[in-house]
Amino acid sequence: MTNLSQKATTLLELHKPGNPVVLPTVWDAWSANLAVSAGFTALTVGSHPVSDSIGKPDNEGITFDELLARITQISGAVDAPLSVDIESGYGEDPKRLIDGLISAGAVGLNIEDTVHSEGGRLREAQEHADFVGALRAASDATDVHVVINARTDLFVKEIGDENDRVDRAIARLKLAAAAGADSLYPVGFHNDADYKRLAEELPLPINAIANPAEGDLSHFASLGVGRISFGPIFQMVLAKRAEEVLARWK
To answer: Structure pTM?
Structure first.
């Protein structure tokens, strides 16, 4: 537990607005080793690529236990802090989520506000904050400060009027911050002005999604981003390269 507590502290300290930590999104022991061998010291585990890797759909097409089995394999293969995308929580109790992640060797989580088990509805802002708060309370009951990355899908689901979407995302994420989140994830690809506004007006480091084959670290840093992950895009980039290699042998 002490080692996990230290890893959690390390992960949290890596979040620096203007000097963002890059957390490659991995899905198994092989991809995790690939990222660590390339010099990265902390990782995210993405629900979409994990689901793809076992032939099941994203959006909670796998169970929490199936995810934990994969996390255990990854944590056994690499000695790096792991943050795990737990989608909207798989219908599990917050204590079960925290205890399961810690038992599998993870020290961080990504929690989104889309409830896949209820037709993909978006949690109300306070409802999502309350869930974040319950996760924080469950973490506080352990020796590990699990790093909570609170995500909103307002942008990717294009909910409501585009003209005030940034305003609503800021209000929603501020509630999550007050409830105990450690970083905030307005997932989606934004223009520079919106990134700067999100970074300036939100009280915690923000997470940006990037295309590893095209994005630029220094540019994200200039926007005030504190954390970068790749979602399923790293896996997609490798898949495209594999198609090119294999095509020579048809």
So the answer is: 0.96
